[in-house]
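STRUCTURE:
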């Protein structure tokens, strides 16, 4: 598979949906820590170069790209669902909750959301379409995957200081 493109977003923009958010989660697989979600509305006239699925990038490259996304995107937000919410709602339910929070936290309301995965969160503030493997197909979802991964990794590094001995800074709870 090649690098993600802006094709899905361009199609939606051509339909009149100017503000398209990409939404992706990180932390569904770990045994420790929260699930995090990034939501990003990229500026179609100022797309950062080099965006890709966060899992395909080194930590250093993710950091650089996250800075570029924050500097150039129309809107960026992060949301988390706590360990307690994961226990209460299960990982899927907690992920959908964090997705709703991330979209709601954007500084501008999106006209549409592209969601990585197979689920569309109920109660989302805008129409949405899930895309399986979306972080490798959509630039907006890739951008969301990068900011979410950088933020969650930083959180896990802080938890490593508070709870030494578990290696959270090294493996982020995976």
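SEQUENCE:
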């Amino acid at each position: 598979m090649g690098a993600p493109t802006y094709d899905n977003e361009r199609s939606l923009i051509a339909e009149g949906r100017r503000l398209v958010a990409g939404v992706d989660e990180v932390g569904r697989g770990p045994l420790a820590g929260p699930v995090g979600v990034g939501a990003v509305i990229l500026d179609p006239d100022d797309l950062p170069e080099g965006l890709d699925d966060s899992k395909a990038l080194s930590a250093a490259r993710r950091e650089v790209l996250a800075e570029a996304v924050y500097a150039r995107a129309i809107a960026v937000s992060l949301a988390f669902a706590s360990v307690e919410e994961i226990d209460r709602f299960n990982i899927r339910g907690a992920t959908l909750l964090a997705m709703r929070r991330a979209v709601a936290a954007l500084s501008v309301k999106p006209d549409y959301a592209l969601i990585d995965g197979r689920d569309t969160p109920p109660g989302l503030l805008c129409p949405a379409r899930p895309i399986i493997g979306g972080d490798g197909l959509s630039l907006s979802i890739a951008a969301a995957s990068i900011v979410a991964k950088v933020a969650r990794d930083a959180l896990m590094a802080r938890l490593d200081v508070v709870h030494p001995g578990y290696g959270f800074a090294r493996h982020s709870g995976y």
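REMARK: The longest strand covers residues 20-26.
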